[in-house]
Amino acid sequence: MAMDPTSNPGSYEPPGTSHDHVEDPIHAISNLIAWADEPYDEPIADHFDDTDNQLIQVSLGIASGLFYSLQAKHFPTASHSLRVAKLCSRWAVELDLEPFQRDQLEVAALLHDVGKIGVPDYVLTSPGKLSADEQFLMDRSQEIGLEILSACCDGEEIVDLIRYNYAWYDGSKKNSDVSGKDIPIEARMLAIADAYDSMTVDQIFRRARSKERAMAELNSYAGTQFDPDLVQQFCELQSRTITPNTDSTRRWLRVLSPEQANKRWKANAESIAPQLSRSHAAFQDCLVRNSHDALIFLDISLQIIGWNQGAERLTGLPRDVVEGHSWTPDLLGLTDHKGRKFGEGKDPIRAALVSRTQGKYRLSIRNAAGNFVAVVAHIVPVIGEDGASLGLTIQMHDATGVESLEEQVQSLHYKATRDPLTGLFNRAEMDRSLIDMVDRHTTVGRPCSVIICDIDFFKKINDTFGHQAGDEALIVFAKMLEDKARPGDICARYGGEEFVILCPQCDNEMAAALAEQIRSDLAATSLSALGGKHMTASFGVTEIQRGDTGDTILNRADRALLQSKEMGRNIVTQIGGGLNAPQIGDRRSWWTRMFKPAEPEVLLKRAMKTRVPLNLAAEKIRGFVADHRAEVLQVTENSIKVMIDGESLPLQRRVADRAVPLILDLHFSAMMVENGSQHTKVQISISPRRNRDRRKRDAVERARHLLLSLQSYMVAYEFVDTSVASMDDHSSWWSRLWGGTSQKMGESR
After folding, report:
1. Where are the alpha helices (DSSP H) in 275-423?
2. How far apart, in whole angstroms, are the C-alpha atoms of residue 251 and residue 567?
3. Which among 531, 535, 557 is positioned nearest to 459, based on CA atoms?
């Protein structure tokens, strides 16, 4: 145990030493450092001068390489260590410590931060507060430093000084087994000098503190982190000015012998190797040897220098047979994942060596049983510190199970979404895609279209040529649909001989042109299954309209198909106005909107004008009723009342939402315009089926949605006499004043 400064300096003598040891020239390093040429408070340089270098070499001997490694890693840390050594040397002279104590203290001060060699540069140069991970790396430097010194110090004295340098005087710091005077005096001194220098020198993360501020900080931690007696002595020492003595420095340099310093370091090569490196090598060797994956190491000439047990299991080739031989694809029967051989010099191993780029590949090799199996190979070039290529590492694992599972998943997905006869999408997948297309295009306000087609007189084909010929006709027609459809279109078998094409980003004109092309090509194609005869198909086309759902657009396309059949088949019929129909407006004055409240039992009231005559308007209403699956409640000569079940309406946010059936009351009247043509005026009133349903959430919004759809069917061009029920029975006069504007905004969404 090192002696306490209050005890008699001459009364302590370490085992195996004598008083003659005091005169040994190696201990003169204490005096040399204590009266070094430069004063402590001179500006900090970015390099060490000749005197500094001589002091380091004389003090550390062959271990000076550790110090210069720290200097190369992070010069500020090395400079800090040298200043701390000088501080400790001056202080040790003042305390009249034994020469061997002064010597050990100086060496410990020079090397106390050597563990920062193992700290990443980005942590050492971080200008701000360290994160938790960065702080862990910084704290780890203490352990690294102790491991380095334990591997090369001949004795534990210096290692203990650095270890106890991190202990707190009151023993409150974790992982500390000593406290108070049990801590070696050199370690207590080193802790104070280390903290003082850190505070009084500019750091990348903060400016330097004044000497007075630093000494005040030391005093505030005296008794907890630091020895209070030593703090008082250190502060008194710093209050005095020490005059440098150049002559004494030069004289001591002439008499000191670096060979004496080498006695404290181990000289055999086995001991010099750091324990940490040995342990890492053991871990790496264990990992490579026992890895389940095949690991293969090749040098720059593609000679096999490593072949682990995993490679032996996978390939059936023992290590002693292949190591030392040159790599060739034929060694493992290497092919791509489809079993195709690589061209001369084109295999991924040679390509990675040339390009110096790592890659992951699905390959096929011959396994231990002689069968070809799928493997995933990760090929990584090995690059030396000087940038030169050293070789390659290859990691392979059997992917047979993964590949089989992927194939099964793909097969199940195909079966779940495809029609088994034609290979087109089935009805369920078409329904899902239709809803998605309508929602997506409604949101962005872009057109999309639906084409429904039906083979004409398909029953006659089955009855005349047989069901096998009918199946062949379905396959040929499906193939034609798939070939003619645009990229991104979805072709599906709707049922029986009916097919559907979903056309994203497509208006009525484009969809009708596509349908016409398919119709004409089909009519000109002779089928061998039909004895060389031709078959035809009918088509219905429609474009998305405001207020549409998946059901309404599909029903409208189906109605167009029925019209094609009624008109003689083998034709294309297109109905619907698309998204370009005029939007609902509001012609009421602000005075009317303010003082004329809506009838409480009505959600919406409109009067619209359409350019079609009264009889054609009735046909359009018939299509609206059919597509929305409405129930006709009452029909008179000039009016119709229908109920639309809420289940067929959009905007149902949750499965648990109870649908609100809505009643539409429509009144028709003929109009003569200036050019003599007949137009039609339609008065619309929308209300819930029951009065209590009026309070149902989103009822008004659903009514507006229906009105938009009706507008599209009627191709209405003007709206008058509008009133809307408020969703809040106690709306303010401001709401009544601006209600029309808000309605218009909501209806245009």
Report:
1. 275-290, 309-315, 319-322, 348-355, 400-417
2. 121
3. 535
| Dist. CA 172–CA 272, nearest whole Å | 35
99-111 and 75-95 are packed helices; what angle lies between their axes, rounded to 10 degrees?
Answer: 160
Helix (H) or strand (E) holding 58: helix 50-60
What string of DSSP letters covers 471-518? Answer: HHHHHHHHHHHHHHSPTT-EEEEEETTEEEEEEET--HHHHHHHHHHH
pTM of the model: 0.39
What's CA 375's distance to the chain center, in Å? 27
pLDDT of residue 460: 93
CA 552 vs CA 25, 222, 322, 624, 629: distances in Å:
104, 85, 70, 8, 9
Q: Among 74, 69, 66, which residue's Cα sits nearest to residue 153?
A: 66
Q: Are 610 and 617 in contact (CB under 8 A)?
A: yes
Give 249-253 contacts, CB < 8 A, sequence gap 24+. 249/32, 249/35, 249/36, 249/37, 249/51, 252/28, 252/29, 252/31, 252/32, 253/32, 253/51, 253/54, 253/58
Length of the chain measured in residues: 749
Residues contacting 597, CB < 8 A, separation 6+: 736
Residue type, 683: Q
Which residues of the chain carry a pLDDT beneath 50? 1-44, 243-258, 267-274, 584-587, 595, 597-600, 651-656, 694, 721-749
Q: Which amino acid is present at 306?
A: G
Residue among 422, 504, 510 at smallest CA distance from 471 = 422
| Cα distance between the two ends of the chain | 86
Beta pairing partners, 379: 359, 394
DSSP 398-420: E-HHHHHHHHHHHHHHHHHHB-T
Q: Report the run of H or E that residue 135 belongs to, with start and end.
A: helix 132-152
User: According to the model, what pLDDT value does residue 389 have?
Assistant: 84
- How high is the pLDDT of residue 100? 81
Residues 68, 78: Cα–Cα separation, whole Å: 8
With b for 16 or more beta-carbon neighbours within 10 A and e for fewer, the 625-646 pattern comes to: bebbebeeeeeeeeebbbebeb
Angstrom distance (rounded) from CA 557 to CA 466: 30
CA distance 488 to 484: 12
Strands (E), 117-264: none
| Summary count for the chain: helices (H), strands (E) | 28, 19
- Determine the pLDDT at residue 571: 92
Q: Which two tokens stand for residue 591?
A: 């005075």
Say how far apart CA 320 and CA 309 lie, in whole Å: 11
Q: What are phi and psi of 213, to 5 degrees?
A: -65, -40
Q: Which residues are registered as beta bridge partners of 491? A: 501
Q: DSSP state, 303?
A: B
